[in-house]
Amino acid sequence: MINGRQIRAARGLLKWSSLVLAEKSGLTRETINKIEDESVHPREGTLHDIIRVFSENGVEFIGNRGVALKDDVVTLNGENSFFHVLDDVIATLKNTKGAEVLFFCVNDRVSPPTIVENYRRLRRSGIAMRSLVKEGDTYLMGKLHEYRYLPQQFFHNNTSLIYSNKFATMILDPNTGSDIGAIIIRNPHIASAQRNIFNLIWSTSETPTETTATVRYDE
Prior knowledge:
Elements: H1 4-14, H2 18-25, H3 29-37, H4 44-56, E1 59-62, E2 66-69, E3 73-77, H5 81-93, E4 100-106, H6 113-124, E5 128-134, E6 147-150, E7 160-163, E8 166-172, E9 179-186, H7 188-204
Parallel strand pairs: 4-5, 5-6
Antiparallel strand pairs: 1-2, 3-9, 4-7, 7-8, 8-9
């Protein structure tokens, strides 16, 4: 877990006072000072709040020694990229009140067990999910009210996600159509624009009325 020296260094990167960090994390300035002086042992939840605030403002902690500015664009390579994107969703939104992740063009039927378990981790973390799926698809692992139908002519099997100030999209192999990577963009303007498009489609789309899924997220 992070330590006081890292928190001071993270504030330095953003040119924040301890008061600014206190206000953004919902803590008192005295608490921040004590954590940085390591005169108290904060709860894990408190440290998660601090990590989240810095993460949302472009700073990441490296192990228990380092701190650095995050790249605004992160590229992931390999067939496990979607798994790592879901990991980032959890790390970004965990302990955030009202947290939600939006999925464009989801196909639950092709989700392997490792991905299903990560979806379950999302739910256990209190993160809400909404998904746009192909019109007529009834293999839905979540609750029906979490889905809306996207007309078939507009559906493309290339999942994108919107969460916090991030937009992520998968990279597909042009020959096989399988995932070979992902791009995560941390930009509040892009995330907001994509969220508005999602919500516009959501507000005018039909809700599924049945599911034939043999595996469910809430099992």
